[in-house]
């Protein structure tokens, strides 16, 4: 997962390298997702999320659809 | 995963945060007073469970997400120390894991302009821009280094 200055920079990067566009959203959203995903990682009680749990978390941030499904 | 694996996992992260570099299986074995082979076996079980990632063909840690054992394009500064994140998500994740205050230094993947992402109180306070995920979730672990 890479950082870009804007959506236009994502478009140009994909176009120049012939890459398929994936999913993009604001870094502020990613920061909140990173908080939910990682804040408890040092706890002994941490458990890896089951795929459905991860998908439910993504959905809280509007990240839905096949791209965000673990299949 | 066993109770030992949980104990080993916690020891890995504690040492990684404290030292700023990934511990070896021998380091963890000495800390927990267990055999080096037992620690290495636990490392492999943790990798199988997608908890950590080892350097291919070794028992050396490559990633203990969000931390990277090797330099990346995502430098993270926090009050606890300086680290590398595996990607921009993980760079922000290091800050979340360590108290919600810090800075990720990276560059725009397109134009190479420096980007400074500041976080305070678990909120992004500096750093406009977007994150791009190239790989769908279902394929993240096919090649986690690329993801």
Count of separate DSSP helical elements of chain B: 4
CATH architecture of the largest domain in chain B: 2-Layer Sandwich
Please give the domain count of chain A.
Answer: 1
Reported for the largest beta sheet of chain B, the result is: 5 strands, antiparallel
Beta percentage of chain A is 5-15%
Order of helices and strands of chain A: EHEHH
Total beta strands of chain A: 2
Q: SS-based structural class of chain B?
A: alpha+beta
Radius of gyration of chain A: 15 Å
CATH level 3 topology of the largest domain in chain B: Beta-Lactamase
Largest interface: A-B, 44 and 47 residues
The amount of helix of chain B comes to 25-40%
H/E series of chain B: HHHEEEEEHEEEE
Percentage beta strand of chain B = 25-35%
How does the overall form of chain A come out from the CA principal axes? elongated
pLDDT below 50 for ≥5 consecutive residues: which ranges of chain A?
none
* Mean pLDDT score of chain B: 94
Q: What is the terminal-to-terminal distance of chain B?
A: 24 Å
Main pleated-sheet profile of chain A: none
Shape of chain B: globular
Return residue spans of chain B where pLDDT drops below 50 for at least 5 consecutive residues.
none
